[in-house]
């Protein structure tokens, strides 16, 4: 197996992901009203499909591989967690924060299917070999965090 280029990231431990290995790839763009449709500033991360592998999205740069702007308070410190199960399948959870009601909404779209809301504190399984997008939408301003995913099964 060959190592991937630097643009594809590394495992959570900082090791390069190897070609041929099954991985979950994430891309993230923070979009405000005036920038809708722009992809500048897109971030990428990936992790091998190994039991216990995790990728997180949120404001806390210490624990999140994909970090949103610090002042985007509609995003929790750790908002979304992608976790690989014992069988190599991935799931995503909208982690509950410190507030009873969230200041955002999360919508999950799987390739070829209608968008579905992901409940606050809810979990959804991601299809192997599939792709889709999660959109974290601010309830008070025209801002969103768009997280695309591709599971190379």
User: Whole-number radius of gyration?
Assistant: 15 Å
Please state the average pLDDT score: 85
Q: Label the structural class.
A: mainly beta
The top-level CATH class is: Mainly Beta
The strand line-up of the biggest sheet is 2-1-11-10-7-8
Percent strand equals: 35-45%
So how many helices? 0
Q: What's the main sheet like?
A: 6 strands, antiparallel
First-to-last CA distance? 16 Å
Write the CATH architecture name: Sandwich
Helix content: under 10%
Shape: globular
CATH-defined topology: Tumour Suppressor Smad4
Given as residue ranges, the uncertain stretches (5+ residues, pLDDT < 50) are: 1-18
Domain unit count: 1
Order of helices and strands: EEEEEEEEEEE
How would you sum up this structure, described in words?
It comes from Streptomyces avermitilis (strain ATCC 31267 / DSM 46492 / JCM 5070 / NBRC 14893 / NCIMB 12804 / NRRL 8165 / MA-4680). This is FHA domain-containing protein. The chain is globular. Strand 7 (104-110) and strand 8 (116-117) form a beta hairpin. The protein is mostly beta strands and 153 residues long. Residues 1-18 have low confidence and may be disordered. It starts with 22 loop residues before the first strand and ends with a strand. The relative contact order is 0.21. The chain has a single domain (45-152), classed as Sandwich (Tumour Suppressor Smad4), CATH 2.60.200. The chain contains no helices and eleven strands. It is 0% helix and 41% strand. The strands form two sheets. A six-stranded antiparallel sheet has the order 2-1-11-10-7-8, with no helix packed on it.
